C-alpha cells in the first residue's frame, strides 16, 4: 500500500505549502473551515467564506483570517449587488449545504420542506433547498469549477429524486456535472466517513472526455485506496477529563458491547444504534456533531485530541468556544478535500492553462 499523500497529524503554522498553485477558492456553508484547510494544503488560495452561524464564523476568522467573510444566509449572499469582483473570477466555488434532511440518521422525508436551524444564533432555513441556492450562486459567479459535499443518504430512497434535480440545476447553470460517493478512510483520514461529492465544470471551458454517451458527465479520476488508519494509531492515554465516565445506562451496555460493534447488538429494542464501542484495529466511524464513539478499554468517549486527529484537523486549530466534536462533526475533513482538490488541479485546471498557450 502506498504512503499517505497528506499528513493527518499536522499544523497550520508549519504544513501549508510555501509554493501556491495560483488558483483561488471561495467556500460556502464553511463551518470552521474544514474544506478551506484542505484547499490550502493542496496549494490553493482561499479568498473567504459565507457562513450563517456566528460561532462557526468566529472560529473561521480566528484560524483563517479571510480576505472576505459574509455572515449571512446564502439566500442573502447570492442576491448581493456588492459581491467583490475577485469572486467573479474564481477557480473553485466550494460548498457543503446543510444536509440533515437527507441523513440516514435523521427524520429524512418527515423533515423535507420544513424550516429548521441547527442551534441558537442561526436563522431558520428550509435545508433541502439550500443546495439550489448554492447552484444559483454558481450561476451568478460563474467559477471554473464547483465542488459540493453532502451526506450519503442523498443517494438513498426518495432522496435520489433530489440528485436528479441537482444535476438538472447544474446543467441549466451551464455546467457539466457528476458525483461520487467517497470514503475518507481510503483517502488518508483516520475516520470512516462516507460523503457524496458533486464536481462540476463550466461547459465553455471543458475539452476533456465524458463517461457517458450523452456527453453530460465529465471525467475525473477520484479513485482512492490509501492505507487505512485504525483507532490505535490516534488513541491517547490521557485527555480532557469530561470525556471520562459514562451514565448508568450507557455504562451497562458499554460493558456488554463487543469492540467494533454498536450497543444496539445487546439492546432489546435495537436502540443505541449510533453508540459504537471502538476497536483498536478498526477505523473510527463517522464523527457526529451530536455524539462520540466510546473507547474499547476505558469507560469514556473519545478525547478531544483523538477527535481532531480522526477529522484530520490541525493540532494547532483554535476552536474558540465551539465544542471540538461539534465543529469536527459538521466539517469536511481537510485531508479529504485536499485529495480532491489536488486531482482537480492536475486533471482539470492545468488543462485549462494549457489550452491558453
SSE succession: HEHEHEHEEEHEHEEHHHHH
Helix residue percentage? 25-40%
What order do the strands of the largest sheet run in, or round the barrel if closed?
3-2-1-4-7-9-8
- Enter the CATH topology name of the domain at 12-228 and 332-356: Rossmann fold
Largest sheet: 7 strands, mixed
Gap from first CA to last CA: 38 Å
How many strands appear in the DSSP assignment? 9
Shape: globular
Tell me, rounded to a whole number, the average pLDDT: 91
CATH architecture type of the domain at 12-228 and 332-356: 3-Layer(aba) Sandwich
* CATH top level assignment of the domain at 12-228 and 332-356: Alpha Beta
Name the CATH superfamily classification of the domain at 12-228 and 332-356: Vaccinia Virus protein VP39
Assembly annotation:
single chain
Structural class: alpha/beta
Radius of gyration, Cα only, in angstroms?
20 Å
Strand content: 5-15%
List keywords for this structure.
357 residues; globular; 29% helix; 11 helices; seven-stranded mixed β-sheet; 9 strands; 14% strand; two-stranded antiparallel sheet; Rossmann fold; alpha/beta
Question: Can you describe what's shown?
Answer:
By secondary structure, the protein is of the alpha/beta class. The chain has a domain at 12-228 and 332-356: 3-Layer(aba) Sandwich (Rossmann fold). It is 29% helix and 14% strand. The chain contains 11 helices and 9 strands. It has helices spanning 12-15, 34-41, 54-64, 74-78, 130-141, 160-172, 231-234, 248-256, 304-310, 324-330, 334-356; strands spanning 24-28, 45-51, 68-71, 92-95, 115-116, 125-126, 145-151, 175-183, 194-202. Strands 3-2-1-4-7-9-8 form a 7-stranded mixed β-sheet, sandwiched between helices. Helix 2 crosses helix 11. The chain is globular. It starts with 11 loop residues before the first helix and ends with a helix. Mean pLDDT is 91; it is low at 103-112.
Amino acid at each position: 500500500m502506498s504512503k499517505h499523500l497528506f499528513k493527518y497529524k499536522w499544523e497550520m503554522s508549519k504544513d501549508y505549502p510555501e509554493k501556491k498553485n495560483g488558483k483561488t477558492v471561495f467556500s460556502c456553508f464553511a463551518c470552521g473551515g474544514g474544506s478551506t484547510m484542505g484547499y490550502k494544503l493542496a496549494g490553493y488560495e482561499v479568498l473567504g467564506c459565507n457562513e450563517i452561524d456566528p460561532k462557526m464564523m468566529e472560529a473561521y476568522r480566528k484560524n483563517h483570517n479571510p480576505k472576505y467573510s459574509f455572515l449571512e444566509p446564502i439566500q442573502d449572499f447570492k442576491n448581493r449587488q456588492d459581491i467583490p469582483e475577485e469572486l467573479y473570477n474564481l477557480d473553485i466555488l466550494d460548498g457543503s449545504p446543510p444536509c440533515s434532511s437527507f441523513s440516514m440518521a435523521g427524520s429524512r422525508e418527515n423533515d423535507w420542506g420544513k424550516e429548521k436551524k441547527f442551534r441558537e444564533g442561526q436563522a431558520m432555513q428550509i435545508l433541502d433547498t439550500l443546495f439550489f441556492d448554492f447552484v444559483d450562486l454558481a450561476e451568478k459567479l460563474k467559477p471554473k469549477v464547483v465542488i459540493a459535499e453532502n451526506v450519503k443518504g442523498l443517494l438513498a430512497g426518495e432522496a435520489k429524486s433530489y440528485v436528479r434535480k441537482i444535476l438538472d440545476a447544474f446543467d441549466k447553470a451551464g455546467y457539466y456535472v457528476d458525483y461520487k460517493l467517497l470514503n475518507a478512510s481510503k483517502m488518508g483520514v483516520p475516520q470512516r466517513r462516507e460523503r457524496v461529492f458533486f464536481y462540476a465544470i463550466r461547459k465553455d471551458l471543458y475539452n476533456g472526455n465524458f463517461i457517458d454517451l450523452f456527453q453530460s458527465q465529465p471525467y475525473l479520476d477520484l479513485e482512492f485506496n490509501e492505507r487505512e488508519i485504525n483507532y490505535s494509531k490516534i488513541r491517547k492515554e490521557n485527555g480532557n477529563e469530561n470525556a471520562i465516565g459514562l451514565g448508568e445506562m450507557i455504562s451497562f451496555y458499554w460493558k456488554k458491547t463487543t469492540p467494533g460493534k454498536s450497543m444496539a447488538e445487546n439492546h432489546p429494542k435495537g436502540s443505541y444504534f449510533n453508540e459504537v464501542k471502538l476497536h483498536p484495529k478498526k477505523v473510527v466511524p463517522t464523527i457526529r456533531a451530536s455524539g462520540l464513539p466510546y473507547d474499547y478499554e476505558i469507560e469514556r468517549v473519545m478525547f478531544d485530541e483523538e477527535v481532531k486527529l480522526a477529522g484530520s484537523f490541525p493540532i494547532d486549530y483554535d476552536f474558540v468556544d465551539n465544542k471540538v466534536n461539534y465543529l469536527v462533526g459538521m466539517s469536511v475533513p481537510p485531508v479529504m478535500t485536499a485529495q480532491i482538490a489536488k486531482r482537480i488541479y492536475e486533471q482539470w485546471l492545468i488543462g485549462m492553462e494549457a489550452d491558453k498557450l
